[in-house]
């Protein structure tokens, strides 16, 4: 018989027919037919525990049986160019630009060059964001452990080949489909795929679905589906794609543009008829003024500026080692009003130290030390608590481990059975004292005192039966208390203070003892840390649970399913919830939260479902993400008001021109100048400026409630000036003089809208507004610029009348904005 290499998960027996034990092509094909949602158990195949040989790997690579699906963290360059160039409004403006190039001087075609420049800026900024995302995605990529030639090594997901033996441990995610080859109390959560909340105990021969993850135990599976055939390939590609969907900001802008299009089309048709048919003007002049009326209706820069703001946000966060897997997460976290934190790995560092072991019931210290050492060596993948015990008792291989019970977040303890030699056997449990001990046990008083100091306490108890028996914890004999000290994150206190200052409620949700967690939170200055609640006493009614969540700040002994329910309860009260975590027990809550935030060192499963991954494992990065989101939302809301004010007054001016049957007052060059000085340049700076204002909902309503009255006032004031000027001027050059007076009024009113939006003033905001005013003044006084833009104020009466009308309109703007703020609060 061939000698097999031993393995911690047990020896696999070859088939009786003398086969090598490797999966046949028939077995692989059978695995390829698995339904990812309703899997069928396959016969347990014979698998060589050493995995594939180098020759077999090379053979499969040559056949193309490799998991080489690229996980894209961003759009391709071609998609970026297409998305920025081929837009509905770029098409409209492009056609109008080509017309103007043939019928008017080049200065009336400037709007086309502006669009080219804007589109170029958008492409460059998104390309920069793409490079940042791609580089960060490589850093945060999962590295599954694959056994080849008897050696286990981490490799890239894309290097897995068909038939590979992939090892699994707690928190690992199955990256390809396969069949279980080895199992040691292997429990896999398939809820992200099937919706079933309970973990599934897997045995050799059972199918493994890509996208599922291990919650307890360990094992290995043979890859039966790789590449695009694997179910996870579709999930991973969709989950990490650079996207602007599912965003209130983006959806709101799309809604606005839809209504703008509906208004623009009939208005533009009426303007064309008015200028070309009703007025008997020269053809080229009529076309120029018609285009001049249509172009400013289009808020073309608004979409661009939103994309640029988001892209720059990605780059800024990327420099802080923050991977934004879904772009709207920047916006979403800015809207968050409740942050749920998992204590371990978030408020505390992953490592712990054993500070004391207190024996109970007269147990021998040396013997207890041997038990703890044996427990530490029994788990090939110890969690943070058990790792501290391993560090304290490194010599733990004296006894033979005969059975293990992996730690589970649901049961709150782990266990192992040992052959101590000399015919002596024992079974031990290690876990939460308040779970393993009855409620009235006197030891709980001592434990409570330790918990109040912020220490973590584990109970070592001797089990009376087999570990796989029902309710093994019942009747366990307490033997020792293991006291652990947790290492606080040095930046956690400042981060909690930031959220408190920003009026974001912080809830600490942990599987540890509630009093111990409250003591840790109290040391970090968490407001309400004294309000603790044991989740075992949490009401199951969603409404009552929501009340309990709002009234308390610290929750202990929380199960993974309860974390999910708590997030849902908060959401039912209208809260926008962010959930942070790094452990496998956080996955379900991370997925259901509005924003899921995972630590880079967290389990592969948490990184897969989170929208934001903190690659530097620093909780202190979160304020930067919140600040970036608030900057984007607040500033886009500001500049959107600018863009849509222009759209409103452009549409209304066109309507007034059609109704009164007069020449349209502006040429394209005039509105290009006005748009550049009152919207384009200022909007770029305002969109990228710091903004700590808390994000508010109802984007469309917030923008339009100011844009509509501002646009109406600007249009009425401008048209009034134009009509007065038509009565004032006569003879050759009258139309140019009338246009100049109307342009002056529109510029001054638009500048006042800019001045309102730029508040609260800082030195650079004042300088920005002043610079735009100075630039327009230069155009009015420099002869060649006057000629280039066809702007020349004639006389003094009409120009001063234009200024006076603008002053009255500006006062009307101030009144309207204050009235809207009182009458239509959002």
With strands numbered from the N-terminus, the spatial order across the biggest sheet is 8-21-20-19-9-16-18-17
| Shape annotation | elongated
Largest sheet: 8 strands, mixed
- Beta-strand content estimate: 15-25%
What is the helix content?
40-55%
Number of strands: 21
Number of helices: 28
**Helix/sheet category:** alpha/beta
Mean pLDDT over the full residue set: 79
Low-confidence stretches: 1-44, 235-245
Radius of gyration using CA atoms only: 34 Å
How far apart the termini lie comes to: 79 Å
What can you tell me about this protein's structure?
- This protein is an alpha/beta fold.
- Helix content is 50%, strand content 15%.
- It contains 28 helices and 21 strands.
- A hairpin with a 2-residue loop joins β1 (145-148) and β2.
- α23 packs antiparallel against α26 (763-781) and α24 (699-728) packs antiparallel against α28 (797-823).
- The radius of gyration is 34 Å and the shape is elongated.
Summarize this structure as a short list of keywords or feature phrases:
elongated; P_typ_ATPase; ATPase_P-typ_P_site; transmembrane helix; 826 residues; 7-stranded antiparallel beta sheet; transmembrane; 8-stranded mixed beta sheet; single chain; HAD-IC family P-type ATPase; disordered N terminus; alpha/beta
Quick gist of this model?
With 826 residues, this protein is α/β, with parallel strands linked by helices. It has 28 helices and 21 strands. The strands form 3 sheets. Strands 8-21-20-19-9-16-18-17 form an 8-stranded mixed β-sheet, with helices on both faces.
């Amino acid at each position: 018989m061939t000698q097999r290499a031993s393995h911690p998960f047990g020896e696999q027996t070859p088939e009786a027919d003398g086969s090598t034990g490797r999966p046949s092509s028939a077995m692989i094909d059978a695995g390829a037919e698995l339904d990812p949602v309703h899997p069928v158990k396959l016969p347990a195949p014979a698998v060589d525990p050493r995995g594939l040989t180098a020759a077999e790997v090379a053979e499969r690579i040559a056949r193309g049986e490799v998991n080489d699906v690229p996980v894209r963290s961003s759009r391709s360059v071609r998609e970026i160019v297409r998305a920025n160039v081929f837009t509905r409004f770029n098409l409209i403006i492009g056609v109008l630009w080509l017309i103007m190039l043939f019928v008017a001087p080049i200065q009336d075609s400037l709007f086309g060059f502006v669009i080219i420049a804007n589109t170029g800026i958008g492409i460059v900024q998104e390309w920069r964001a793409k490079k940042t995302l791609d580089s960060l995605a490589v850093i945060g990529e999962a590295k599954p452990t694959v056994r080849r030639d008897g050696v286990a090594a981490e490799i890239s997901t894309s290097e897995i080949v068909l038939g590979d033996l992939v090892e699994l441990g707690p928190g690992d995610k199955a990256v390809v489909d396969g069949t279980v080859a080895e199992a040691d109390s292997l429990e896999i959560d398939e809820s992200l795929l099937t919706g079933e909340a309970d973990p599934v105990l897997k045995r050799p021969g059972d199918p493994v679905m890509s996208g599922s993850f291990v919650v307890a135990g360990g094992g290995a599976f043979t890859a039966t589906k790789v590449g695009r055939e694997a179910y996870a390939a579709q999930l991973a590609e969709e989950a990490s794609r650079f996207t602007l969907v599912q965003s209130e900001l983006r959806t709101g802008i799309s809604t606005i543009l839809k209504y703008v299009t509906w208004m623009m089309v009939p208005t533009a048709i009426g303007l064309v008829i008015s200028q070309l048919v009703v007025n008997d003007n020269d053809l080229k002049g009529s076309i120029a003024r018609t285009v001049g009326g249509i172009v400013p209706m289009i808020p073309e820069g608004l979409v661009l500026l939103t994309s640029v703001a988001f892209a720059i946000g990605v780059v800024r966060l990327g420099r802080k080692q923050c991977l934004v897997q879904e772009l709207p997460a920047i916006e979403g976290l800015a809207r968050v009003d409740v942050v749920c934190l998992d204590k371990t790995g978030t408020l505390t560092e992953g490592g712990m130290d054993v500070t004391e072991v207190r024996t109970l019931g007269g147990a021998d210290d040396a013997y207890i030390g041997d038990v703890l050492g044996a427990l530490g060596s029994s788990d090939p993948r110890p969690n943070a608590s058990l790792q501290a015990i391993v560090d304290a008792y490194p010599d733990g291989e004296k006894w033979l481990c005969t059975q293990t019970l992996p730690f589970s977040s649901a049961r709150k303890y782990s266990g192992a059975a040992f052959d101590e030699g000399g015919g002596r056997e024992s079974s031990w449990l290690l876990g939460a004292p308040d779970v393993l001990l009855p409620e009235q046990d006197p030891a709980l008083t001592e434990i409570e005192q330790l918990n109040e100091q912020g220490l973590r306490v584990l109970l070592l108890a001797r089990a009376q039966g087999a570990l796989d028996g029902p309710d093994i914890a019942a009747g366990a004999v307490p033997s020792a208390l293991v006291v652990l000290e947790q290492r606080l994150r040095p930046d956690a206190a400042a981060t909690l203070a930031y959220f408190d200052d920003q009026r974001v409620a912080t809830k600490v949700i942990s599987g540890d003892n509630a009093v111990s967690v409250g003591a840790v939170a109290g040391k970090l200055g968490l407001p309400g840390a004294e309000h603790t609640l044991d989740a075992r006493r949490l009401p199951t009614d969603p409404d009552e649970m929501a009340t309990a969540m709002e009234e308390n700040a610290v929750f202990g002994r929380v199960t993974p399913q309860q974390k999910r329910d708590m997030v849902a309860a908060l959401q039912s009260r209208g809260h926008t919830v962010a959930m942070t975590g790094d452990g496998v027990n956080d996955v379900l809550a991370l997925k259901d939260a509005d924003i899921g935030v995972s630590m880079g060192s967290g389990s592969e499963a948490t990184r897969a479902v989170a929208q934001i991954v903190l690659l530097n494992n620093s909780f202190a990065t979160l304020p930067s993400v919140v600040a970036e989101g608030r900057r984007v939302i607040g500033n886009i809301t500001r500049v959107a008001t600018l863009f849509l004010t222009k759209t409103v007054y452009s549409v209304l001016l066109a309507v007034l021109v059609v109704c009164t049957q007069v020449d349209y007052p502006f040429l394209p060059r005039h509105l290009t100048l006005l748009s550049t000085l009152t919207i384009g340049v200022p909007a770029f700076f305002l969109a990228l400026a710091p903004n700590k204002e808390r994000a508010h909902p109802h984007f469309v309503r917030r923008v339009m409630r100011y844009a509509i009255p501002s646009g109406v006032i600007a249009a009425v004031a401008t048209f009034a000036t134009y009509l007065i000027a038509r009565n004032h001027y006569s003879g050759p050059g009258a139309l140019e003089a009338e246009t100049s007076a109307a342009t002056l009024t529109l510029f001054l009113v638009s500048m006042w809208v800019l001045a309102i939006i730029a508040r609260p003033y800082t030195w650079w905001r004042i300088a920005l507004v002043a610079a735009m005013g100075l630039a327009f003044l230069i155009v009015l006084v420099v002869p060649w610029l006057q000629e280039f833009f066809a702007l020349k104020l004639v006389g003094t009466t009409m120009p001063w009348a234009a200024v006076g009308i603008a002053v009255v309109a500006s006062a009307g703007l101030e009144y309207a904005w204050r009235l809207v703020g009182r009458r239509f609060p959002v």
